[in-house]
Amino acid sequence: MLRSTMVALAVFAGSALPAAARWSFVGNDGEAVALDETPVRIIASQDAAAGLIPLGIRPVGIYADSAVADAKVLQGLDLSGIEIIGQSWGEVDIEKAAALEPDPIIGEHRPLDNSWSGGDDVVAALSPLAPLTGPIQGYSILTLIEDYEALAQSLGADLSASDVAADQAEFEAALSKLKTAVAANRDLTALAVWAGTDALYVAATEGSSELMNFASWGLNLIDPEVAEDRGYWETLSWENADQYQPDPILVDNRSEATMETALAQRTWTLMKAAEAGRATDWPAFWLRNFAAYVSELDKLTVAIHAAGANLAP
Amino acid sequence: MSEGVGNRAKKTARLTSGLLLLGLTLAVIAMLSLATGARAIPLENVWTALVDFDPNATEHRIIWDLRMPRTVVGLMVGAALGLAGAVLQGATRNPLADPSILGIHAGASLAVVLGVAVLGMTQLSTYAWMAFAGAGAAMLVVYSVASLGREGATPVKLALAGAAITAVLHSIINAILLTSPRTLDEIRFWQVGSLSGRPMDIALQVAPFLTVGMILAFATARLLDGLSMGDDVARALGQRIGLARGMAGLAAVILAGASTAAAGPIAFVGLTVPHVARAITGTGYRWILPYSMLLAPILLLGADVLGRVIAPPGEVQVGIVTAFLGAPFFIALVRRRKLASP
Amino acid sequence: MSAKADTSRISAVRHAAATRGRNVLLGLALALLAAFALALYLGDYPVPVSGIVRSLLSPLSGLADRSVDFIVLQVRLPRAILAVLSGASFALAGIIFQTLLRNPLASPDIFGIAHGASAAAVFCIIILGWSGIAVSFGAFGGAVLTALAIYFLSWRDGVTTFRVVLIGIGMAAMLAALISYLFTRARLNEVQQAMAWLVGSLNAARPGDSIVLAGAMLVLIPLMVGLVRALDTMELGDDSARALGAPVELTRLGLMLVAVGFAAFATAAVGPVGFVAFVSGPLARSLLKGAGRGFAQAALVGALVMLVSDLLAQHLLPAVQLPVGVVTGACGALFLLWLLMASGRSGRVN
Predict the structure, then answer these.
(1) Which residues of A touch B124 (CB under 8 A)?
(2) Of A65, A105, C227, C326, which sees the most CB atoms within 10 A?
(3) What CA–CA distance (Å, rounded) separates C342 from C168?
(4) What is the nearest CA distance from A156 to chain B, expressed in angstroms?
(5) All domains of chain A in start order, with CATH
(6) The whole model's pTM is what?
(7) Chain B residues with beta carbon closer than 8 angstroms to that of C203
């Protein structure tokens, strides 16, 4: 709430000034970035790009954590005409970045370790070129998308444009369908997991923005009892795969390999929902825009209905 | 002299009974492997699962679907690694020789990384074949490189070639892993060397290769004895050195490649076990080989069981436990000059 | 009469050796200069030669151009300097070990010191959550601790090559397992960060790194020269030297610590870049053909290898920036091939 107010104030302050448009944005590390003109040439991290492109802001350069074809967050986006200046974590081509003459660099800020997208080396490489700013990776994907909308608007995007508005409308529709499904099936408990060959990892709701969103919309998510890594994951040996009996099961979908690994484990089906095939996708950590959120919500809604139908006498 | 014959007979008797003792220990450890795990299952239930299997009982499923394949793979991989190490050390007359030093593990790893990153393989049983191919290719390269020049593949040159090729392959692997987090995420568990998550099919796929490798290895026992006396003596005795080394190398590649394919690269077993075997049996590959073959799975399964119980509710992979157990032991061995030259 | 002819022949040989040594040194220095110039010139951001010269002189002349200066003075120059300094450091570490242990196999990359630095760095990144300079400190500490551990574990009435190498390999395996274990316990982005460090790269070359490394070299090089002079006395062999009262073990230990210092500081600055230490000594020696020990020449070879490898890493493939460790690895492989073939012809290794 406070943050949105700050953002709104910043945008208002920026738009209230006459002629020589001063642009100012308060990034979520609390620092305000000000430029003499509304920035046009943006270098964005892959996450920021996924947030801004659907809203009509096209960066001139993107630095990605992996080969662009592998990056789940960039799938489905039209990247033509954008220079890719980095395809591996922590590395950017500084000279290519300099040749692009960026005005701001936009990434995401992680308050937990006070770091930015791509890590310290990328920050050190890019910050001499242009100021670095951006929203926070926080407790809600919805808020993150709203932050991107505010940022895009300050950069001159028209949020009432037909495709942008259509995305939002579709999202509202998908969300209401989800809420209906959840309300109709209050007895369900879901579990979010990542499957490896050596162990099954159970996710804590607090560690993931989209899980926090799902929980806030009424989905009962099981939280692991004993968790490591700041309380975000519980490691279960496959012998103990039936520690919880959720329905449906949400499986990390950043890579198809995860679901395949899960299916290949002989004790995966110790969970009755797995045996019945009621495992669906968990869009873990990569959602940044309404279009992607819509397709994931639809899958979740279907899974909830299927699980509910199973419970019904 | 009758005394000499008497001593030899005593030695044979002693070593045979030692072998039987080892076999017994192995059986006990195998049972332990079936009975232990992250989930506490009472012994009677373990027994019931074995003799009166009920497909609906969760505990029975765990015994048969998880612990049994794990134990079987552990037995096979252990035996293979022990034999491969013994054969390599004998063929290269190098107490350091083991599948990881001669580049076999690095070759297997690179092949798997390529399979996952480039060909998009995701399942253990598919990239197991890549591992096998990579292991063979690496060993071939190491051997060919070491054979360049007049003297052929001497022990020093083999070690040099192996170390260099390993380092080169690792830098390529790291470069690929940096550009593909997806691959990194999968490989970081495989590369450690683990027996968990291996279904029985893996054991069945790998078994024929292990059998061939074992037969070949035992066939080289006499040749290895000859080689251990030094190239010149061996030649004088009419031994064909090239053939001996070639056969031994082939056996080692088959054994080590197949075991890496099944369990990932497990580093210390092939290096340490032959030394322990030699310390017990003295020279004579007729004994060193079977002792290595039994000692290694005892070490491996023991390490696996340890890994299952020291970090509940998760596990520590066997490759890590063997390294932490094996390295200090090996260092102690080196310090006490117990390193008998093979 | 014959004695006089002998001494004049000896001094003639010595003179020839010294000349050859100087010539090789000069040749290497020129090659290094050329590579350095190339490093300043090549890059995605096009800068003409005149622009480079102007940038280099800008602190004196005051003529500045913000963007070009940034590229030349803040990106290319620090990177080239760091390559030269770290390459020389790795090379000196390598040649000291190879001389002390009398074995071309003896390189800090192979028997554990690099692994010690890596394990410490990965531990700092994943468990302690450190980054940047702090990780470099950790890596340094790890290298020194590992070297000391290897030394003391191999000490039993003295240190033999055999024992040092074996124990080093044992420690290397244990440390590699530790790194693998840490990788399985961490979240993916921490693993990525650790992986990036492990590969070794000059990409994040900060001027600070070069300053620390240069400072270290300023201390270590004189130490090395002094200890090597003492080593010359020991050329007579350990027993005779001991009879002469020379503190053999202490000198050896001292030199080993100096070598570890070189390796540790260089690894802390650029990560564990492999093969430079391994390759430089033998290459220098083969250029000299027996004319002297070759420490200075080795340092220049190392600098050259690192610099050229970095250039290749940056510009060889069009869309991709390889880490320098990959290219040095390939160089190492080629070198080994050459070594094996050469040894095949001459019948001995080194």
Answers:
(1) 197, 264
(2) A105
(3) 27
(4) 34
(5) 7-157 (3.40.50.1980), 163-311 (3.40.50.1980)
(6) 0.81
(7) none
